[in-house]
Amino acid sequence: MPMFVIRTSAEGTTYNFAERNQLRTAALRSTGSAVPSALRMSSPESPRSSASSQRALGSFIFLSRWLQAPLYVGLIVAQGVYVYHFFIELWHLLSGVASLDEKTIMLIVLGLIDVVMIANLLVMVIVGGYETFVSRLNLQGHPDQPEWLSHVNAGVLKVKLATALIGISSIHLLKTFIELGSKPSSDNSAVMWQVIVHMTFVVSALLLAWTDRISTKTAAESRAAH
């Protein structure tokens, strides 16, 4: 902002443009006269008004995190669907316990384990995601607080989700190997792709864990330096 300087020949006093406007504003207010709009715009209240607008905008943006809350409620409903599917499969297992062979029982049990692991994945996403991105759950001192929730952050959550995906992929791969004997040899390409996808999950989890370790170490060194 350009500075306009005024000098008085009698006293040699120097005023810049903003100081001159403040003096004129004070003089007009003392005489009860109306203050021109140009002088009101240059008053010190303008920076405070701008800061207040910025705080209001920041508060509005921060409140937008609550838009994710319905998404986690939807995941809770999806978990209820998996619970229903689990009991349907369990009923099939119990109703056919006398007629099912060992291979079929093993496949049904692996399916039940798969449902449980997906439910665990949903719990981690719902609880960890809500705690990390929406609001605190205030579970300190609660006897049922998960051990991993006390130190959860975005990096830890990514690693745990990747680990859960590896477990789910392992169950699917094991089911494919068990069913391989009853399928023609032309299905070997599907097994190959499942193995490739599983190894991709493993490598991705290792990279995420390595990245999280580097970022945690860097943050610790930065705190120690300060």
What does this structure look like?
The protein has 226 residues and is an all-alpha fold. The chain has 2 domains: 6-62, no CATH class; 66-225. The chain is built from 7 helices and 2 strands, in the order ββααααααα. It has helices at residues 17-30, 37-41, 45-63, 69-95, 102-133, 154-179, 188-225; strands at 6-7, 14-15. A two-stranded antiparallel sheet has the order 1-2. Strand 1 and strand 2 form a beta hairpin. Helix 6 runs antiparallel to helix 7 (188-225). The longest helix has 38 residues, at 188-225. The radius of gyration is 33 Å and the shape is elongated. The model is unreliable at 1-12 (pLDDT under 50).
Short précis:
71% of the residues lie in helices and 2% in strands. With 226 residues, it is mainly alpha-helical. Helix 4 (69-95) packs antiparallel against helix 5 (102-133) and helix 6 (154-179) packs antiparallel against helix 7 (188-225).
How many whole angstroms does the radius of gyration measure?
Answer: 33 Å
Question: How many domains is the backbone divided into?
Answer: 2
Strand elements, count: 2
Structural class: mainly alpha
Strand content range: under 5%
State the helical fraction: over 70%
Averaging pLDDT over every residue, what do you get? 77
Give start-end ranges of low-pLDDT stretches: 1-12
What distance lies between the first and last C-alpha atoms, to the nearest angstrom?
36 Å
Apparent shape? elongated
